[in-house]
Write a structure and sequence with these properties.
The chain is mainly β. It is about 5% helix and about 50% strand. It contains one helix and 40 strands.
Length: about 450
């Protein structure tokens, strides 16, 4: 940074005594001169790649200003200007990742909208404080490094997003409204992330779509999330020691295309999480393998995992005896499993058309488990076979109160419900149960 810039900062501090100006901070002057012009800035010199551009109380009203060309800054901070800050093109704004917080609205009193294309590189931190909104209405490209999104405010990505880095979301609301292509990891540690536009994720990593804490909302009006690997909701791993995640499908068509029948299945509640939850309320979600309440609970205070289908369609696509498992080990070995959970179909359709739904194992240790399966009016549970494990310490309760239990295996005499009835109960309540044999002849053998 030049001597002139350092002196300019010192003069501003001495005159007003009210601003926190750090080395590298360049304060916006109260005008609408293009940002590439030194006259737009206090001190007469425009910020460069080593500087942080700052909007503070010296800007007396709403400030809409053009970039004036492609710009590279170390960071951008909004403090307490007199009104909304809006940056527009021509040109793109690049933040190179050198600042401690690159998009800094942690203490902002006004919102920020960037209408020019934004390019992020290096180790990026974006923080949006309580009650504030940061809107990127044009394309956003995240080239390299990583991105951590902090603060309880709102980040709206309204334009196309191209992301090649690992992103960690710790708090606040983040909305993907435009078309997004992601090749890095998406890790939700807190707050809410909503996917409302087409979202193509091709990260080749088992942790590519991870909901440790907070809520992931799939709410695209048309085809939205397409993910090449697996997902999990509720899991402890690495730095995450307490996990209570929720994934909601409310609209659109979403596909989880990868995973296997062991450690890379898609999980709802696994390995030490306090709780994992998946709610399907509309739209459609399909995945290859799905596991509910897998491996061990966190502690005696852990909550029950939940898979609730209230509308729309949830499909497990694999033709396998382990396509869907509940209350088991991830690899279906006879080892300790202690998580409890609820599978509820009260609207919409949960289908495993070519595979088996396995509820508990035959052994698996002495830890007590409560595994509830509830089918009620308006819901359809469609399976090739429902296999009930004989583990004595797993209490398996099936409640039928309306709804349809549909068989997809039409072979003569095919067993729809099978397995050991040890510590298992089947209760048909006032709503009754309709068994749809799908044109075949099925048996209930428990």
């Amino acid at each position: 940074m030049s001597l002139i810039r350092r002196l300019a900062g010192a003069v501003l501090w001495g005159v007003c005594g009210c601003l926190t100006v750090q080395a590298g901070d360049i304060l916006k002057a109260d005008n609408v001169t293009p940002l590439s012009d030194g006259a737009s800035w206090s001190g007469g010199i425009a910020p460069g790649a080593a500087d942080v551009a700052v909007w503070e109380s010296g800007v007396l009203s709403a400030n809409t200003v053009v970039l004036g060309g492609a710009l590279v800054w170390d960071g951008l901070r909004v403090g307490s200007p007199g009104g909304l800050v809006t940056l527009t093109g021509p040109g793109a704004l690049t933040l190179d990742g050198g600042a401690a917080t690159d998009l800094d609205m942690g203490s902002a009193t006004q919102d920020l909208t960037i209408g020019a294309p934004v390019v992020l590189s290096g180790t990026q931190v974006a923080e949006v404080g309580a009650g504030r909104a940061l809107t990127l209405s044009n394309a956003c490209t995240i080239l390299s490094g990583s991105l951590t999104r902090n603060g309880t405010g709102r980040l709206l990505l309204a334009g196309a997003v191209t992301n090649a880095v690992s992103c960690v979301y710790t708090a606040g609301d983040t909305v993907f409204a435009g078309a997004s292509r992601v090749t890095g990891l998406t890790s939700l540690r807190g707050g809410n992330v909503a996917i409302r536009g087409p979202f193509m994720s091709t990260a080749n990593d088992a942790e590519a779509l991870a909901v440790y804490n907070g809520t992931l909302l799939l709410d695209g009006a048309a085809s939205a999330l397409t993910h090449s690997n697996r997902f999990f909701v509720g899991r402890t791993a690495g730095a995450v020691t307490a996990s209570d995640g929720l994934m909601i499908v409310s609209n659109g068509t979403h596909a989880i295309l990868g995973g296997n029948d062991s450690s890379s299945s898609s999980f709802v509640g696994v390995s030490g999480a306090q709780r994992g939850r998946l709610y399907v309320e509309g739209g459609r979600l399909s995945t290859k393998y799905l596991r509910l309440s897998t491996n061990n609970k966190a502690d005696s205070g852990a909550l029950n995992d939940e898979l609730r289908v209230r509308g729309g369609v949830l499909t497990v696509t694999e033709a396998s005896a382990t396509a869907f498992m509940m209350g088991t080990r991830h690899d279906n070995v006879n080892d300790i499993a202690s998580r409890s959970g609820l599978l509820e179909v009260s609207g919409g359709r949960f289908e495993i058309p070519n595979g088996t739904a396995m509820i508990s194992t035959d052994t698996g240790g002495t830890e007590a488990q409560a595994l509830d399966v509830r089918l009620s009016s308006g819901g359809v549970l469609s399976v090739k076979q429902l296999a009930v494990g004989a583990k004595a310490n797993a209490m398996k309760s099936f409640w039928f109160d309306g709804g349809v239990l549909q068989a997809t295996n039409t072979a003569a005499g095919a067993e729809l419900i099978t397995g050991g009835a040890v510590n298992a109960s089947f209760k048909i309540q006032d709503g009754g149960l309709l068994v749809d044999s799908n044109g075949g002849d099925v048996r209930l053998s428990v």
